[in-house]
Amino acid sequence: LHLQPVPSQPLPPDLYGPLRRNSAGLDLAMPDLRAPLEQAAAQVTVPAVPEADPARIAEAVARSRTACPGWSRAPVEQRAGMLRRAADAMEERMAPLCALLVKEAAKTWGDCVAEVREAVDFLRYYAGEAERILQPVTLPGPTGESNTLRLTARGPWVCISPWNFPLAIFTGQVAAALATGNTVLAKPAEQTPAIALEAVKLLHAAGVPPDVLQLLHGPGETVGAALVADPRIAGVVFTGSTQVAKIIQRALAAKDGPIVPLIAETGGINAMLVDSTALPEQVADAVVQSAFRSAGQRCSALRLLCVHEAIADGVIAMIQGAARELVTGDPAQWATDVGPVIDDEAFEGLQKHLRRLHAEARPLLPPGEAAPASRLIPPQAFELSDIAEVKQEIFGPVLHVVRWRGDPLQVIEAINVLGYGLTLGIQTRIDSRSLALADSAHIGNVYVNRNMIGAVVGVQPFGGEGLSGTGPKAGGPHYLYRFCAEQTVTINTTAAGGNVALLA
Ligand code: UN1
């Protein structure tokens, strides 16, 4: 039983390109794309991207500051037009971008297509959002006075993006900062600089001046740290680990200089609560998608399945059956469902965790053959006796399962205690229960009776609470406000010197 995670309302055509369905439900356009994708794959090479040294970083920040006033004073429609042109160009270059993603980030074809679509959506969505929110608002005031609230750019933003969505999240961060009139110093993940470079080239070709958007590649410990420590930057937007978000927050607080905003979207120990009325087929489908798709390398991915004991055996049996059908292998093969993990360090970390789980928990899936050379880990699941035993986010195709009985609100309480708050799945046929449980969960994105990945731009604004980040939610109507400074202008319209018109 497949519940289609498509929104029920028709979406504005300018927001959703012709290929767009849903970042998670992607197969619709694949037959047409297969030939161009294969052709692109045969030609693609991953270019080397030079690392930025300290002198280049200092110079980039200076250029970014100098470029900001001109960029921010340009009409928002002009900036939005550039983002839309970049979106069109990106859509046209679907095949080569996917081929580069498969090669550089080892994502499966389906994930790559969804990712390019998401990047395109971010560009178009933030273009429209900037046009909407950057209009001055007239506020009430006493006679003889005019009051206006305006949003203005803040200055150079540092955008630090992850390797797991190296095009979509990179483009989303950059587009949000640019649309609102800020300049950008973009620091992509060390593992995936080439796809970031492609996105930057498309934005430059669409009219964004080179000093307005600069790419600074290199390790977080040096390049990222130098950017964050610079007193001339105006804000940081970061997606990555909770640990690094805290390092950034500390560094921002410790330096001399202004107090600047941090937008952080980090990890999660994301749970799915399944009650005794849930449909097992639907649960199994949602679990397999949420836990194992993208090799579990999504911050939204399901890590902890809490299933009511009355249906646990049946649900587990179905998950075992479904997981057996998944093909783990080379991401460039069409049949592959689960590709490699990103690098050797990730592979080693996961192997260590799996060894501990084999010793302490009940394995539910055959171990399969983990292959260090190809960094492949077949989907794994383990039954634990208590939610509290899951102590950290495990970023891979590894599911933890716990049975429960009694009050589902207590399960939500135990999930809250973990301290993360990114995604939550609820599977129930008691309609009133889902909202009651969502009310008690300190969690940013709740998905009822479906999978819990693939948040769609403009439809499921994405981001978490607590250890999962600061918000506001990416791809949502409040996101761009955080990139702006607010200014009120109060004018005494009776003052000597004549009538002063409202500021435009
Ligand atoms: C992430 O993994 O960093 O909902 C974000 C999703 C994506 C967002 C994941 N749109 O799966």
TrEMBL record:
Reaction(s) this enzyme catalyzes, per UniProt: L-proline + a quinone = (S)-1-pyrroline-5-carboxylate + a quinol + H(+); L-glutamate 5-semialdehyde + NAD(+) + H2O = L-glutamate + NADH + 2 H(+)
Family affiliation: In the C-terminal section; belongs to the aldehyde dehydrogenase family. In the N-terminal section; belongs to the proline dehydrogenase family.
MF terms in GO: DNA binding; DNA-binding transcription factor activity; L-glutamate gamma-semialdehyde dehydrogenase activity; proline dehydrogenase activity
Role, per record: Oxidizes proline to glutamate for use as a carbon and nitrogen source.
GO CC terms: cytoplasmic side of plasma membrane
Source species, domain of life: Bacteria
Domain Aldehyde dehydrogenase: 41-489
EC number: 1.5.5.2, 1.2.1.88
EC category: oxidoreductase
Keywords: DNA-binding, FAD, Flavoprotein, NAD, Oxidoreductase, Proline metabolism, Repressor, Transcription, Transcription regulation
This protein's record includes keyword Hydrolase: no
A single GO BP: L-proline catabolic process to L-glutamate
Pathway of action: Amino-acid degradation; L-proline degradation into L-glutamate; L-glutamate from L-proline: step 2/2; Amino-acid degradation; L-proline degradation into L-glutamate; L-glutamate from L-proline: step 1/2
Protein name: Bifunctional protein PutA
Cofactor: FAD
Active site: E265, C299
